[in-house]
Design brief:
alpha+beta; Alpha-Beta Plaits; disordered C terminus
């Protein structure tokens, strides 16, 4: 049945059941037997004023035979919704060598593998977990400068090598571009130290071939290169 065709009272009933199950999990957490969760859920739904039938036997018609009872339903709510309570040994496998990061307000830790943080896919839970540990991601931001060039990578190779040797902590990227008529290569320079980045930027500009620079990231005019006459 399409969701739009489900009667509003049934939607409200199932929403109440789900909210009750979430409340049970918040209070007692994972790791218990199904019978314990069922008893807690019965108490929670009863407090919400729902009519309940617990472990009701149901028959099964198999060809000409009627099997009675064939099985027992954990819970029938409001004479309309069947609820089966399930508990699993574990919700997920944790990779070997992973770190479990906990924080106030988190019932289940965040899994960290090396520098990779694994968050659950439910948006509400993801946001709650991220805000609980967001202080771990606070660090100095990277500063970025871009240089747009009218030449290919071959004429600038030695200048790039010199810049990397002079500024080993600089993150320097060179990206050929084939679909832009105004430039052929984009250089990116990144560092958390703005002064270090500024010095490396000036050093590299002074060593690029004359006439190679089309524009800079701030839209400033083409600088004059130290390779030519000043």
């Amino acid at each position: 049945m399409p969701a739009a065709d489900i009667p509003a009272p049934l939607v409200e009933l199932t929403s109440t059941i789900i909210a009750g199950a979430i409340e049970v999990h918040r209070h007692i957490g994972p790791g218990l037997l199904e019978s314990a969760y069922l008893k807690c859920l019965v108490l929670e739904l009863a407090e919400r004023g729902l009519a309940l039938e617990v472990e009701r036997p149901l028959p099964l018609q198999y060809k000409n035979a009627r099997i009675e009872p064939a099985y027992r339903v954990d819970l029938i709510v409001g004479r309309r919704v069947l609820v089966e309570v399930k508990a699993v040994e574990r919700l997920a496998e944790v990779p070997e060598g992973a770190t479990l990061v906990s924080a106030p307000g988190l019932r289940v830790p965040v899994v960290v593998v090396e520098k990779l943080y694994i968050f659950p896919g439910v948006p509400e839970t993801l946001r709650r977990k991220f805000h609980a540990i967001k202080s771990r991601f606070r660090e100095a931001p990277f500063h970025l400068k871009r240089i747009y060039l009218a030449v290919g990578e071959e004429p600038i190779a030695s200048a790039l090598d010199d810049a990397v040797a002079k500024f080993p902590a600089l993150l320097l990227g060179s990206y050929p571009v084939f679909d832009r008529p105004d430039y052929r290569v984009l250089l990116t320079l990144e560092s958390k130290d703005l002064r270090y980045l500024t010095e490396a930027h000036a050093y590299l500009l002074a060593r690029l071939p004359q006439g190679a620079v089309v524009r800079l990231d701030d839209g400033s005019p083409q600088p004059r290169s130290a390779w030519g006459e000043e």
